[in-house]
Specification:
six-stranded antiparallel sheet; 989 residues; five-stranded antiparallel sheet; 17 helices
Length: 989
């Protein structure tokens, strides 16, 4: 009976009308009436409430139920395992078909959305759009139909083609009834309930263009094209599955390290055997800014009560911490991308961590089983200290220090009787210490306050030293750099002031500031100004200073080094401040604070800029406490002139890995030297807002995070490398620089989805002009992919990233490399997981063996013979770019090794040469033409490692059907090394 309504809807819309959705109207359901008995006092009879259901034209209603996402099959990708059951205990609606070009155009005109390239006709699915494009459409649709929106954001960013590439402060509100994207669980639930899913597949229509929606007709419940036409965006961040049953699953809670989204279904070019309802991705990583001509979307409608998310640690959560600002906004406020934030999530009791230098995409809770308060990040940004006690409460407390770089490491405990509110401090000799107090309770009573003590303890190489008492009194608001002032506030604003010519540890007196009125949250800035920020309780000194009354904690007050009030900043309407703390880069200083709503909940973290009194909200949640913002110091340490980069086992180091300048001689795991030599050039000051900024979260290229590290290797190894690998994913995964034997020093600068034109531009603008000892270029010859021409990131996408624009505007620094570019690139935003994978291997991304699998063809293998299309022309264009690269290398006396990489040997059983074709009957002719280049150009060497499938790369050497695993990469790299040995190259610099 539950499908009765859906069947009726199907009869009405089986022709998949492309008309606009009608305004929702409540109608009486044809389902059986549900008895809801209530007592009528007069008649003592039962009153029956008749349930209603909203009918939405163009959509099918689902009552909810149980579905399974993921599979136990080990042949599935890791992110598609294990099978997880999801119970949907709510009803929702799903669009009959993908949103069409005509539907989008109609809404766009009314809502003033951006319009894109024109479609062939209005009935085909809108495709080649980003996730954010779909979100803006859903919001516009909701508004036009009189609903609230399911998505909110602060600011939208667009590329040159008017596609939305970022929504800063983006948040999904599952409790809001609105048009939205379906969750992955909803999509699978609908797809697996189709009468005959294969009926809606368009696998026979494999031309390189999209087709009208519902071209194969609808299934039995009214849906069509769930597995054909275009792949579809769904709502979720890519999350992990668990072998359990969850209710109302909504994906991952945030973007994680990769910022990866989920797409579902197949498209017009998919082969039937590859499509299943559990597939949750594309060939390459899918981010919110990704777009492809075969990816579109369909809408869902409804709200999700009690939504549940599962984090990367496998733990479920029912509330989210929402990032209201990305690293671009943080950069504008703090003056740097090198910013980190920690705070207490009072719901979980854990310390939460956001790394803005790595994009600020996710929130990581880094403590467990420790009820942690007052976190503070170390001067070099590597550690966080916190305590189990907090300000205003007298109790025994323990201080711990935990690594921010190694999530697997255990917290280090300070073994003293009681220690609370840790504050990092760098001494004049460079040693890093932590200052703490023995009790942080009410300091109003003089004797009680003096009974507590202030101590400091060294922290070096991940270990505590011997604690040393500084003085009596619990001064937990900070000690000035010159050791002449200490402050505290936990009822009274107290200060310890050194006598002239002395220090607070030798000869000082204690005093009370702010007219002895009640104050708290004292924080002493570490920028040399010795200003103190604090909160008050609407005391008389504050009223006199601002010239009127105000509520408790409504204002942040700032006092100078003598305790005199110099500034007051008012909180936003409807909020008061709490937990305010200074943050500084040594020159510019701001204040991190929580915002408390009218109900007393600490729902937001904001940054307050005393320069203009502006307040920027950056994080939102249920209960957020004790924010601490770390900003990298402005001081830049000079590099050592002793370079060890010529060692094949060398690693990149820079000021970001060696700590702040002040820590170079002692604590905090610092190192006093660098291993990158940058020769001095002409006097030129880099614009650090642009230099080396090859990645940001609002960019329009999905693999920009990988490119960012490849550019880092280029600039840091330009004087050391003599062999460079370029190309696409088959090189990225297939050539390991560390396998080469000295004197070869190689780096892998290949990136997925990078075609020949892009490789050519990268080679002639970056590699050949700057890698001064270059002897060999290695590149994969993936002629099965030469049916299309694209420039990858070096098309218009590069304009999203200031580093590339800056390089281009300076002629790519040809003959004029600017000092500091390598260091600027090293310190620029990136992603931790990519960094940890690529830095140790100089660009190689090793994958564990998954086997060759089935030899499925992703594209029509007859493309080369199709004279009606432009594929032969595209092939010739790519071939010409190969010749240009060979010739460019020849001019520089550089060898060019072209490798035909191995693919699944079982393609011999098919009619296709490889994953993307061409025909096996055509491939030998194309290979013979490549052989001819080696006869024409003496510097060109062809290595055919595929041999039409007759190769010796076994199943345990393969990652998938056309990529090598770690062991396969080792074999391929060793063979290239052997070829280089035969060339008798003089590797002397």
């Amino acid at each position: 009976m539950k499908y009765l309504l859906a069947t009726l809807l199907f009869l009405l819309v089986v022709n998949c009308s492309n008309s606009e959705y009608a305004r929702p109207v409540e109608q009486t359901s044809s389902q059986p009436e549900e008895e809801v008995p209530t007592t009528d006092e007069d008649t003592a009879t039962t009153v029956i409430d008749t349930p209603t259901v909203i009918e939405i034209e163009g959509m099918v209603h689902f009552d909810g139920g149980l579905t399974t996402i993921g599979s136990k099959d080990k042949s599935f990708k890791p992110n598609e395992r294990p099978a997880m059951k999801v119970q949907l205990d709510y009803d929702f609606y799903m669009g009959i078909h993908e949103v069409t070009c005509g539907e989008y155009a109609s809404v766009a005109k009314k809502a003033k959305l951006n319009t894109f390239q024109k479609c062939d006709n209005d009935s085909i699915p809108l495709a080649d759009i980003t996730y954010y494009d779909a979100i803006l459409y859903a919001n516009a649709k909701s508004k036009l139909e009189g609903y609230d929106t399911a998505y909110t954001y602060n600011k939208a960013s667009f590329d040159n083609d008017d596609h939305c590439t970022n929504l800063e402060g983006f948040a999904f509100h599952p409790d809001v009834k609105a048009f939205r994207l379906p969750t992955e669980a909803e999509w699978v639930y609908a797809a697996t309930r189709a009468w005959d899913l294969k009926k809606s597949w368009n696998t026979s229509n494999s031309e390189y263009k999209l087709h009208p929606v519902c071209s194969k007709g609808a299934d039995s419940i009214g849906l069509c094209d769930m597995a054909g036409n275009a792949m579809e965006w769904v709502n979720d961040w890519m999350g992990v599955f668990r072998d359990t049953t969850v209710t109302n699953y909504a994906g991952a809670p945030d973007a994680g390290d990769m910022g990866e989204r989920v797409v579902k279904g197949g498209c017009y070019s998919s082969s039937e055997k590859e499509i299943n309802p559990y597939s949750r991705g594309d060939v390459y990583t899918v981010t919110s800014a990704t777009r492809a001509e075969y990816v579109g979307f369909r809408l869902a409608f409804g709200n999700i009560p009690n939504a549940l998310w599962i984090g990367s640690n496998g733990k479920s959560q029912t509330s989210l911490i929402i990032l209201l600002a990305g690293n671009e906004t943080i950069k504008q406020i703090a003056g740097s991308y090198n910013v980190k934030l920690v705070f207490r999530n009072d719901i979980s009791g854990n310390i939460a961590y956001i790394d803005y230098v790595n994009g600020g995409l996710s929130v990581t809770e880094i403590t467990s089983d420790i009820n942690a308060y007052h976190p503070e990040i170390s001067p070099n940004g590597k550690w966080v200290a916190y305590s189990t006690g907090f300000e205003g409460v007298s109790k025994k407390s323990t201080i711990y220090v935990q690594s921010l770089e190694d999530s697997s490491s255990s917290p280090v405990k300070l073994k003293v009787e009681s220690a609370v509110i840790p504050r990092w401090r760098v001494l004049g000799n460079g040693d890093t210490n932590i200052v703490y107090v023995t009790d942080a309770g009410n300091n109003k009573d003089e004797a009680t306050f003096k009974s507590a003590e202030t101590w400091q303890v060294p922290f070096t190489n991940g270990k505590f030293g011997t604690p040393k008492k500084l003085f009596n009194g619990a001064y937990h608001g900070g000690i000035s750099e010159d050791n002449t002032l200490a402050v505290t506030g936990a009822r009274l604003l107290r200060a310890r002031i050194a006598e002239e010519g002395s220090t607070i540890t030798e000869n000082a007196h204690d005093t009370i500031w702010y007219g002895q009125a009640q104050a708290c949250n004292a924080s002493l800035v570490q920028d040399g100004s010795k200003r103190t920020a604090f909160l008050d309780f609407s005391g008389n000194p504050g009223k006199k200073f601002v010239g009127g009354t105000y509520t408790t904690h409504e204002r942040i007050f700032i006092a100078d080094s003598t305790g005199k009030l110099i500034q007051s900043i008012k909180s936003p309407s409807g909020y008061t401040f709490d937990h305010s703390e200074w943050a500084t880069d040594g020159k510019n200083s701001i204040i991190a604070t929580t915002l408390t709503n009218l109900n007393g909940a600490h729902t937001k973290i904001a940054l307050v800029n005393p320069t203009d009194s502006s307040i920027t909200e950056i994080v939102e949640g249920e209960e957020l406490w004790h924010p601490n913002l770390w900003v990298k110091k402005k001081t830049v340490k000079p590099r050592s002139s002793n370079s060890t980069a010529n060692s094949s086992n060398s690693t990149i180091k820079s000021s970001s890995s060696t700590g702040d300048t002040a820590t170079s001689t002692g604590g905090d795991d610092s190192s006093s030297s660098s291993e990158i030599e940058i020769p001095p050039e002409e006097d030129f000051e880099l614009d650090l807002d642009s230099a080396g900024m090859y990645y940001n979260t609002s960019g329009a290229f999905s693999d920009a995070n990988v490119w960012r590290y490849k550019m880092e290797f280029l600039w840091n190894y330009k004087d050391s490398a003599n062999v460079v690998a370029i190309g696409n994913s088959r090189v990225h995964y297939g050539i390991n620089p560390l396998v080469f034997k000295p004197p070869i020093f190689a780096m892998n600068l290949a990136v997925s989805a990078h075609p020949h034109k892009g490789s050519y531009e990268f080679l002639v603008n970056y590699v050949l002009p700057h890698v001064k000892n270059l002897k060999v270029i290695i590149m994969s010859l993936d002629f099965d992919l030469w049916y299309y021409v694209s420039t990858g990131i070096f098309a218009s996408a590069y304009k999203s990233y200031p580093g590339y624009v800056y390089d281009k505007n300076h002629n790519y620094w040809k003959g004029n490399y600017p000092e500091g570019l390598a260091e600027a690139t090293y310190d620029s935003p990136g992603q931790t997981n990519v960094q940890n994978t690529l830095r140790p291997t100089r660009g190689f991304n090793g994958r564990n063996a998954g086997g060759w699998g089935d030899p499925a063809t992703k594209f029509d293998s007859t493309w080369y013979e199709n004279t009606e299309e432009t594929y032969q022309l595209n092939y010739r264009t790519n071939f010409d770019y190969l010749i240009q690269m060979i010739e460019a290398c020849q001019e520089k006396n550089v060898f060019f090794i072209g490798v035909i990489p191995p693919q699944n040997p079982r393609y011999k059983e098919t009619g296709s040469f490889g994953k993307f074709g061409p025909r096996r009957s055509t491939a030998p002719t194309l290979i013979e033409e490549l052989v001819g280049l080696s006869e024409q150009y003496p510097n060109f060497i062809l290595m055919d490692e595929n041999k039409m499938g007759d190769h010796d790369y076994t199943d345990d050497m393969a990652f998938d059907k056309d990529h090598l695993a770690i062991t396969g990469a080792e074999q391929l790299t060793s063979r290239i090394n052997d070829v280089i040995d035969t060339l008798n190259i003089d590797f002397t610099p």
